[in-house]
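Dear colleague,

Thank you for sharing your sequence with our group. We've completed the structure prediction you requested, and as agreed, I am returning the results in plain text so they can be pasted directly into your records. Please verify that the sequence below matches your submission; if there's any discrepancy, let me know and we will rerun it promptly.
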Amino acid sequence: ASLQPAQQAFLDRIAPWAQQAAQRLGVSPRAVMAHAALESGWGQRPVRDALGQDSLNLFGIKAQGGWTGASTPALTTEYEAGQAVRQNQSFRQYADLDATFGDYVRLLAHSPRYRAALRTGDDVQAFASGLAAGGYATDPDYAQKLVRISRQIPSP
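Please find the predicted structure tokens below.
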């Protein structure tokens, strides 16, 4: 399936940061772009703050685990005992894409939970499975969704 113009524009916008993050994590730029696309709805469903401003949280990173930066509450879907449950969660908020991608790299690179996702090269399935196994998301189909999106993204 070919990309919609808005999807391609999203990829074009994040490509420099995604490539740098991918290099630092030892993964494919397609994996990072697919992750951002999945979590942000191709940039069309960003986490927004109380004023309606985009939080620039492209990866759906929650504000927990000692986070001291800005955050904003948002409604999200979590899976509990296999059932989708809508709930409010606090999400990290960023000033710019440098901060977004820098925090994303720090989170993945420094958490033992995501070790299996790192240095997976062009194997997006291994990256996605590593994220899912580490508990990045509660959606039982998370890895498959990420891989499916990655297949839509042309190799940079």
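Summary note from our side: The radius of gyration is 15 Å.

Kind regards,
the structure core
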